Amino acid sequence: MFNSVSLTKKSLILIGTLTTAHMINDFYAHVLPFVIPALIQDLKISYFEAGMLALAISIFSGVLSPFLGQMGDRHAWRKRIMIFGFLAFCLGLLIMGLSANYALILVACFIFGLGEFTFHPQSTNFLTRNFPGTKGKVMGIHGIGGSIGNFTAPLVVTFLITLVGWRESLFYLTIPGLLTIFALKMVLKEPPKAKKQALFGGITLPLLLLTVNFAMIQMVYKGFLIFLPTFLIESGSTMQSAGAISALMLFTGLFTQPLGGILMDKLGGRVVFIGSSITSAIALWLFTVSSGVFVVITILMFGAAIYALFPVALAMASQVVRSDHVGMSVGLVFGIGSTFSAFTPMLTGLAADRIGLQASFQYLIVFPVLALIVALFLPSKQKLASAIGNPEPAG
Fold first, then answer.
1. Sequence-ordered list of residues with C-beta below 8 angstroms from that of 41, at least 6 positions apart, any chain
2. Nearest residue to 344 via CA among 371, 359, 368, 364
3. Would you say 143 and 257 are in contact if contact means Cβ atoms under 8 Å apart?
4. ∠ at Cα 112 (240, 28), nearest 5°?
5. How does the average pLDDT of the chain come out, rounded?
6. What digits encode the pLDDT tens for the residues 224-262?
């Protein structure tokens, strides 16, 4: 399955630990959309204020994500940074659960967001160093963990909120983060330091194109996901039904993330980006004009297209720069994307306050269209292999 790469017990433990940590990380990344309906009902916040919470989580990731990725490479702090991220998740959840007003919840979301951009650059670094010949496939397996976290979050969070209320739910949700910290501390062995480099010394044109492309994808994804549960509830679904439908969308990533990685190894990331951009644009348009069971079908179609790109973006980010810049490059791709996508829930909420949620979703179609245009200029698999050297240091 892994060609020339032999899977030893040590490498299996590494993949298993990081895939499980990915599951918990991406679980936390999907908590807020399912707390928002409770906040709207309990605190009487507007759609715009709900969008501001998403902005607080991701606003500084464009700067801090590549910076921490580069610091992890230069000072061999990759393991420490990952552990810090899960501590931030847990602290943010505790503060949010104890908050008595919207302002404190906004602060809690900012602290929570400090954890959101620490994991992917460091995890990608560990895996691509250990499996240089099958990056797409290994990142696809790694993506399965993220997909499990994605689709279990709606089910678990909505179940807990229904059972004990949204505040108490957030306290229980700190437990998996604390267990993950312990696992990372026990299993990970820090790779060697990279050579001292300027923070953005490894930036290439393909990396910039990839960053812009993935930013467009994250913008449509965040703008849609943040308000999807609220839209479903306001359309007549119960809290748990909205969670189940959202979980089905996120469940598609369990299959399309590894599929995206395999297709990247065979055809190149450019082909996957083009196909996913077209599919997500069509799915979103169909969602805005559909009703009944067709709404669910279009939601699943949208999720499948979006999630195929996540392992591809991670693996391509490690390809388009030298190996001692992987932390910076992955941090840049995810960080810039997160920063830009932080504004789409706010803008979607602002539009929804005036024209309604379903109509506001139509404006999001522009982002996958822009992503398609940029994807046409990404390097093909052949050009990437011939034009960019990426020697791997000994792990």
1. none
2. 364
3. yes
4. 40
5. 83
6. 988 999 899 888 888 888 889 988 888 888 888 888 888
Residues 180 and 57 sit within 8 Å (Cβ to Cβ): no
Under DSSP, the state recorded for 364 is G
For residue 162 the two structure tokens come to 């229904």
- Render pLDDT for 293-351 as a digit per residue (tens, 0 to 9): 898 999 999 999 998 888 788 778 777 666 556 666 777 777 777 778 888 888 999 99
- Enter the tokens of residue 190: 């820090």
CA dist 208 and 205 (Å) reads 5
Percentage helix, strand, coil, to 5, in the chain?
80, 0, 20
Question: E strands along the chain, which residues?
Answer: none
Q: Is 102 exposed, middle or buried (0-12, 13-18, 19+ CB in 10 A)?
A: middle
Say how far apart CA 230 and CA 349 lie, in whole Å.
11
pLDDT at 386: 59
Nearest to 218 by CA among 3, 373, 93, 364: 364
Rounded CA separation 197/327 (Å):
12
Query: Which one, of 65, 10, 1, 2, lies nearest residue 395 by Cα?
Result: 10
Tell me: the pLDDT tens digits for 45-99? 999 999 899 888 877 766 676 666 666 666 667 788 889 999 999 999 999 999 8
Contacts of 59 (CB under 8 A, 6+ apart): 110, 113, 339, 342
Q: Which tokens go with 160?
A: 């807990």
Nearest-angstrom CA–CA distance, 67 and 323: 16
Overall residue count recorded for the chain in this entry: 395
The continuous run of DSSP H or E covering 230 comes out as helix 228-234
DSSP for 173-214, please give it: THHHHHHHHHHHHHH--PPPPPPP--TTTT--HHHHHHHHHH
Query: For tokens 């009902």, what's the residue?
Result: 41
Q: What single letter denotes the amino acid at residue 132?
A: P
What domains lie within the chain, and their CATH numbers?
Answer: 11-387 (1.20.1250.20)
Taking the C-alpha atoms of residue 177 and residue 164, their distance in angstroms, rounded to an integer, is 20
